[in-house]
Design goal:
phosphoribosylformylglycinamidine synthase activity (chains A, B), elongated, homodimer, about 80 residues, PurS (chains A, B), alpha+beta, purine biosynthesis (chains A, B), cytoplasm (chains A, B), 3-stranded antiparallel β-sheet, nucleotide-binding (chains A, B), Mth169, Chain: A
């Protein structure tokens, strides 16, 4: 079983990495860019008896800092 | 217009971040995890006249190091 987890900074939390990318794109002439947010994507290869609840548990305990980050889980 | 870009290390390229996460999850008792790959997700807010070709150009020139990384573009 595979799971993909997206971890993004919550709205309102300053994202210096995203801002750096936005500035760099602007400096390179990409003037259609209005905003950039950068986050992490974590692809998990799991044994077949794993459940979404297991993945949620991993997110809460390790993968995301839920004070400032939100996460989304996609199972495949 | 919004675009989401995933940038992952290519298969075969060592992913120390992913390995670190795998070890940490194992040490925490998550024994159903068989493999972890970690990458970046970049959410772009673009003006409405931007096209997928613009985003591809950004990936090739800045967002991904195409020697070792692959990227996927999703438009929303």
């Amino acid at each position: 079983m595979k799971a993909r987890v997206h971890v993004m900074l919550k709205n309102g939390v300053l994202d210096p990495q995203g801002e750096a990318v936005r500035h760099a794109l602007g400096a390179m002439g990409f003037d259609k860019v209005e905003g950039v947010r950068q986050g992490k994507v974590i692809d998990l290869e799991l044994s077949d008896d794993a459940t979404e609840a297991d993945v949620r548990d991993m997110c809460e305990k390790l993968l995301a800092n839920t004070v400032i980050e939100s996460y989304e889980i996609e199972l495949a």
